[in-house]
Design brief:
This protein has 370 residues and is an alpha/beta fold. It folds into 2 domains: 232 residues, Thiamin diphosphate (ThDP)-binding fold, Pyr/PP domains (Rossmann fold, 3-Layer(aba) Sandwich); 128 residues, Rossmann fold (3-Layer(aba) Sandwich). Helices cover 42% and strands 18% of the residues. The chain has 14 helices and 14 strands. The chain has a 7-stranded mixed β-sheet with strand order 3-2-4-5-7-6-12, with helices on both faces. Strand 6, helix 7 and strand 7 form a beta-alpha-beta unit. The longest helix has 21 residues.
């Protein structure tokens, strides 16, 4: 199909429709509202379910109910709204039903502002709700990737009976880029043997719940989730590599931070600096293996994020103190410029770096001069 000019949020909405979205429940919040607005028109056109709930709490619990029936269901929100959804997300995980959630992140904590940020990383990747569960988390850096990962998110959610989250910072949701849409998929309701599809009396009754009053049964459920997560870790890690073959320094960034970093890396390469970029696409499961391999042959890492260093800790876990890990972040809705990251790359090439240094402390000292 030919490429068309799409705005990120609207592209996600249309991609979800074409992936077979049957029910959407949401609540308006900037910078995500265009997803809801687009679907408020598109879903009724197709005879599908759209509900603007009374709140984010209502929306996620509607998602929970629809997910139990086996339909393809989605909600979307932005940072404070997703925080309100955490209890429902935990229930969905504990009930082992598939659902898709889109989070167009903004500055925080608290209500913060409506500018782009990546402060929701820990909430998404390390589980914001109570209990032992891990969602699949995808992080697009372009409108085309947002489309492709939206389609993938439904397949992954169903394959593993899990929550699949798309986390994107404001620029990806608000920018317009040429992109190609997938073909429209017909609604094909899977014959799930777990779904509550209303066939009472024709088969054994199905009951879905996240409560197990017997601790042994609760533990069995936890173990099921862990075994499923092991399979996800083995089969679903995704990332993009740039200039890593001869890199002496590797920059790691996701979403917009990774996209900005690529411009800096290309400029550094033009100046003869051997630097590469690793851009995680699945931030959960995290690409620990490739970082572990890189740590055995490169001289240092630079992690860049639009937060105070959340993915940084996952990178350090992979590197295991073998080579220095440096950090550069911007917060509160400030998007870094390529020159800022380029200056950090140059600083690293000119400095004697230590594996014992705390990268966040050193970054805070440098930020004090801004």
């Amino acid at each position: 199909m030919p490429k068309e000019l799409w705005k990120g949020n609207e592209a996600i909405a249309e991609a979800a429709v074409r992936a077979g979205l049957e029910a959407y429940f949401g609540y308006p919040i900037t910078p995500q509202t265009e997803v809801l607005e687009y679907l408020s028109r598109r879903m009724p056109e197709l005879g599908r379910t759209f509900v603007q709930a009374e709140s984010e709490l209502g929306a996620i619990n509607m998602v929970y109910g629809a997910a139990c029936t086996g339909v393809r269901v989605m909600s979307s929100s932005s940072s404070p709204g997703v925080s309100l959804m955490m209890e429902g997300i935990s229930y969905i995980a504990g009930t082992e039903v598939p659902a898709v959630l889109v989070n167009v992140m903004r500055g925080g904590p608290g209500l913060g502002n409506i500018a782009p940020a990546q402060g929701d990383y820990n909430q998404a990747v390390h589980g914001g709700g109570h209990g032992d569960y891990q969602p699949i988390v995808l992080a697009p850096a372009s409108v085309q990737e947002a489309i492709d990962l939206t389609v993938l998110s439904f397949d992954l959610a169903e394959k593993y009976r899990a929550i699949c989250m798309l986390i994107l910072d404001g620029p990806v949701g608000q920018m317009m880029e040429p992109a190609e849409m997938p073909e429209m998929k017909p609604i094909q309701r899977a014959n799930w043997d777990w779904a509550t599809d209303g066939k009472m009396g024709k088969r054994e009754r199905r009951v879905l719940s996240s409560i197990y009053l017997d601790p042994i049964e609760e533990e069995k459920m936890n173990l099921r989730l862990l075994h499923r997560w092991r399979a996800i870790q083995e089969n679903e890690v995704r990332y993009k590599e740039y200039f890593l073959d001869d890199a002496e320094i590797v920059v790691i960034g996701f979403g917009t931070a990774g996209r900005v970093a690529l411009s800096a890396v290309r400029e550094a390469r033009a100046e003869g600096i051997k630097v590469g970029l690793l851009r995680p696409i699945t931030v959960s499961p995290f690409p620990h293996k490739i970082i572990d391999e890189l740590a055995g042959r490169v001289g240092a890492f630079l992690v860049t994020e639009m937060n105070s260093g959340q993915m940084l800790e996952d990178v350090r876990l992979s590197v295991r103190n073998r080579v220095p890990v440096e950090f550069y972040g911007r917060m509160g809705g400030v998007v870094p410029f390529p020159d800022e990251i380029l200056n950090e790359i140059k600083r690293m090439t000119a400095s004697k770096l230590s594996v014992d240094a705390n990268p966040r402390d050193a970054w805070l000292d440098r930020m004090a001069r801004i």
